[in-house]
Design goal:
The structure holds two protein chains of two kinds.
Chain A lengths: L3 E4 L2 E5 L4 E7 L6 E7 L6 E7 L4 E4 L2 E6 L4 E6 L8 E8 L5 E3 L3 E6 L1
Parallel strand pairs in A: 2-11
Antiparallel strand pairs in A: 1-3, 3-8, 4-5, 4-9, 6-7, 7-8, 9-10, 9-11
Chain B lengths: L4 E3 L2 E4 L5 E6 L6 E7 L6 E7 L2 E4 L8 E4 L6 E5 L8 E8 L10 E2 L3 E5 L1
Parallel strand pairs in B: 2-11
Antiparallel strand pairs in B: 1-3, 3-8, 4-5, 4-9, 5-6, 7-8, 9-10, 9-11
Classes of the chains: A mainly beta, B mainly beta.
C-alpha cells in the first residue's frame, strides 16, 4: 500500500543553523505534499505544502522541494530559532483520496 | 472561523471498558477523518467520511472500533472493548473537499486516551 518514509527521526541543530528533513513516497499518483508542525501537546498544523506541478516553494524561512522522478520531497528551515523546536510530519495525498503521514522528525533547536 | 472541536480532551479507562469520542468539524467541511496517533508516530488514518458516507475504513479495527457521522456533520468514534494498545491520541480532522479527497487538513486538539 501507500507508504511515506521520513528521515531523520530526530534532528538537533544550533540556533541559526539550517535544518533539512527528507521524505520519500511510494504512490506515483500522489499529487499534493503538505508538511505539518506539531508542538508538544498541540494539534498538527499545516506550515507549507507543494503540488506535483511545482519543484520548489518558499515561505520566509521555510522551503519545500519536490523531485517527482525520485519520489522525494524535503523541508528546509533556515536560520532556525528555538520556537522551531517541534515534531514535523511530511505527508502525501495519494491517488486513493487520502493523506498518508510520515513517522515524524523531532527537531531540537539549541539556543 | 471556528476550528475543529473535539471532546473529551483526556480519557482514562480500564481495559475492556468502552469509550466514545466526539468531533464537530469546521462548518461546511464535507470530509471528516479520524486519525490515531500513537506516541512517537505519525497520525494513522482510521476512517474517512464524505458527508455521511464512509470513503475509507480499511485501517479501522472493526471488531472493536465503530464510527458514525449522522447528518453529515458531527461524528463519534467508539471503542468497545478497549485494549491496552489503544492508548493513543485520537485526532479528528476535516477538509473542505467535496470530491472525496483530502488536501489541507484542519485538526482538532485530539483526545488523549489512556487504557490501564
Amino acid at each position: 500500500g501507500e507508504n511515506v518514509e521520513q528521515h531523520p527521526s530526530t534532528l538537533s541543530v544550533q540556533e541559526g543553523d539550517s535544518a533539512v528533513i527528507k521524505c520519500t513516497y511510494s504512490d506515483s499518483a500522489s499529487n499534493y505534499f503538505p508538511w505539518y508542525k506539531q508542538e508538544l501537546g498541540k494539534r498538527p498544523q499545516l506550515i507549507i505544502d507543494i503540488r506535483s506541478n511545482v519543484g520548489e516553494k518558499k515561505d520566509q524561512r521555510i522551503a519545500v522541494t519536490l523531485n517527482k522522478t525520485a519520489k522525494h520531497f524535503s523541508l528546509h528551515i533556515t536560520e532556525t530559532q528555538p520556537e522551531d523546536s517541534a515534531v514535523y510530519f511530511c505527508a502525501a495525498y495519494s491517488g486513493g483520496f487520502k493523506t498518508i503521514f510520515g513517522a515524524g522528525t523531532r527537531l531540537f533547536v539549541k539556543a | 472561523e471556528a476550528g475543529v472541536a473535539q471532546s473529551p480532551r483526556y480519557k482514562i479507562i480500564e481495559k475492556r471498558q468502552s469509550v466514545a469520542f466526539w468531533c464537530n468539524p469546521i462548518s461546511g467541511h464535507a470530509t471528516l477523518y479520524w486519525y490515531q496517533q500513537i506516541l512517537g508516530q505519525g497520525p494513522k488514518l482510521l476512517i474517512q467520511f464524505q458527508n455521511n458516507g464512509v470513503v475509507d475504513d480499511s485501517q479501522l479495527p472493526k471488531d472493536r472500533f465503530s464510527a458514525e457521522r449522522l447528518k453529515g456533520v458531527d461524528s463519534t468514534l467508539k471503542i468497545q472493548p478497549a485494549k491496552l494498545e489503544d492508548s493513543a491520541v485520537y485526532l479528528c480532522a476535516s477538509s473542505s473537499s467535496r470530491t472525496g479527497g483530502s488536501e489541507k487538513l484542519f485538526f482538532g486538539s485530539g483526545t488523549q486516551l489512556s487504557v490501564l
